[in-house]
Amino acid sequence: MSICDGIDEIIDEQFKEVIANVGKKPPHYKRTKSCQLLTISSRPSHFNADKLINNMLLCVKRNWLMSQQLSNRRPSKENWRFKKMPKKSEKNKSPEKVLEKKIAEFTSNDWVNQVPTASGLINENKDKKRSIDLVYKHREYEYELIELKVESNTPLSAAMEVLQYAILYMFSRHHYTESEQKAKKLLNAKKIHLTVLAPHKYYDECNLEWLEQALNDSLRRFMETQPFKLEMDFHFKAFPQDFNAIGGYSDEDCRSALKRIKPVYGLQKDL
């Protein structure tokens, strides 16, 4: 059992009007065709971002309560750490992993990578790899949670991935003890930005501006109901077109690219 068991079904339910027949088995939203169809059809009339966010959080809470009845565990102390993890893995040499490690290596201490979110919530063996690719500290109490993509998956599945991290973040703010929260800078944030960051061409075959807007509207309404002060938003962002994220870049190429990140839709300050 995972803390996020059932979330794929909740996401598929919201998009079923358009993607129910994509692929032989779920989750349907992760398939390339689904992202393309949701671009063509624009916002499905059935889609309700408020319900999506609330149901995802309820699902996580339900899974946690079930696990508590069995083990009464506390979360790992590594969850929500703000610490660089530059060690390279010989097993995972994907473009995303290589770029993530490169960014962690040469940037300031305001950048960290591989931030665990759910280790130990169910048992010691589950959700250890459910980690945020990159977290950037803009200033005190303001952080950006970044799902980094180069070639894999789709903008839609990446958006749902970073949204799951947001749900786990909200769960942690609700269910961690006061001392557990005080020990983590991230859990004391007043502003959280959710970002899908990818090469410019990653977005070529889709337009999910409607999804970005819907999630932002719902996140704003959701935060207004919380017992603590927190702002949260979501954006698709892109590296500059002249940056080859697949490989062959220098540290200086990466530095330059990070300074020139732009929103895919609308106007927003640089990262």
From TrEMBL:
Residues 75-96 have a biased composition (Basic and acidic residues). Residues 71-96 are annotated as: Disordered. This is Uncharacterized protein. It comes from Candidatus Roizmanbacteria bacterium RIFCSPLOWO2_01_FULL_37_16.
